[in-house]
């Protein structure tokens, strides 16, 4: 009997030591290269979390998040062609402002950007066929004061830090961004271990990473204080799997820069 208890005791000790010794930390947060992410100390393929993420496809028109009281909706399944049936005009704009204010086509990325400027600044910008063209617009229009306002442009790599309300503009290319893309800057965090820009947008993943922002993009401050933003999510502790929401293809998306409404 004594002998058996001793063996049991040994077994428990042995298995405990197994547990204690085994987790040699092989990665920390940003270590894993390529298509791996750091999961509980080990570089692990992104495949499983990515497949789970891709299954999240809210039906077209479902609210997917809200930034500063501006809701965003899923554009899942949309053919992304011009369709006047999906045109949206600001409610009661004729009564309130004496003119009809065009918001955009539901639920394109441009429609969210315009709606954000309308709700926050009573300001709209001109018609564009695709998002990249916003970077070429010179002025916006405040329909409340009837004044035109300058749209200032900053190339990605500028030393002027993006600010709340700026529009981030993606370059149009043949692959994943045939129309370019636009997102609104909600917050910027430079002096952090995980520098990033919080953005809000429509018609990107059709699902937001959090209730109040769609993605936290990686920001790098260069030697000459230049700010470079890439189309990759920043990797945070406890959110390691966010890395897997980007793919090799989407990572090639190029951000041209940011557009600021000159409010003065
Ligand atoms: C927008 O215009 C309305 C109507 O004039 C006004 O009540 C509101 O304060 C304005 N909002 C902003 C953000 O300027």
Automatic annotation (TrEMBL):
GO terms for MF: ligase activity
Superkingdom of the source species: Eukaryota
Any Pfam family the entry gives: CHAP
Start and end residues of each Peptidase C51 domain: 84-229
Listed InterPro entries: CHAP_dom, Gsp_Synthetase/Amidase
Keyword field contains ATP-binding: no
Signal peptide residues on this chain, from the entry's feature table: 1-17
UniProt keyword Signal, yes or no: yes
Key words of the record: Signal
PANTHER family named among the record's database cross-references: BIFUNCTIONAL GLUTATHIONYLSPERMIDINE SYNTHETASE/AMIDASE-RELATED (PTHR30094), BIFUNCTIONAL GLUTATHIONYLSPERMIDINE SYNTHETASE_AMIDASE-RELATED (PTHR30094:SF0)
Protein's name in the database: Peptidase C51 domain-containing protein
Organism: Paramecium pentaurelia
């Amino acid at each position: 009997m004594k002998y058996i208890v001793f063996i049991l005791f040994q077994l428990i000790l042995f298995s405990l030591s197994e547990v204690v010794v085994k987790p040699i930390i092989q990665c920390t947060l940003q270590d894993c290269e390529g298509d791996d992410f750091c999961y509980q100390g080990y570089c692990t393929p992104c495949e499983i979390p990515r497949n789970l993420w891709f299954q999240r496809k809210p039906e077209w028109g479902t609210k997917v998040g809200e930034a500063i009281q501006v809701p965003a909706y899923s554009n899942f399944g949309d053919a992304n062609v011009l369709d006047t049936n999906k045109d949206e005009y600001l409610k009661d704009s004729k009564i309130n402002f004496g003119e009809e204010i065009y918001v955009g086509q539901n639920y394109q990325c441009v429609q969210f950007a315009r709606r954000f400027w309308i709700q926050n600044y009573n300001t709209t910008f001109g018609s564009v066929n695709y998002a990249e063209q916003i970077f070429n617009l010179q002025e916006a229009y405040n329909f409340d004061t009837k004044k035109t306002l300058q749209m200032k442009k900053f190339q990605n790599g500028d030393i002027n830090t993006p600010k709340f309300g700026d529009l981030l503009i993606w370059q149009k290319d043949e692959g994943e961004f045939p129309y370019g893309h636009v997102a609104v800057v909600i917050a910027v965090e430079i002096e952090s271990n995980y520098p990033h820009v919080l953005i809000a947008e429509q018609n990107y993943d059709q699902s937001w990473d959090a209730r109040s922002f769609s993605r936290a993009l990686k920001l790098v401050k260069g030697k000459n204080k230049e700010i470079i933003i890439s189309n990759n999510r920043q990797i945070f502790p406890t959110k390691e799997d966010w890395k897997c929401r980007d793919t090799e293809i989407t990572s090639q998306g190029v951000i041209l820069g940011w557009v600021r409404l000159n409010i003065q």
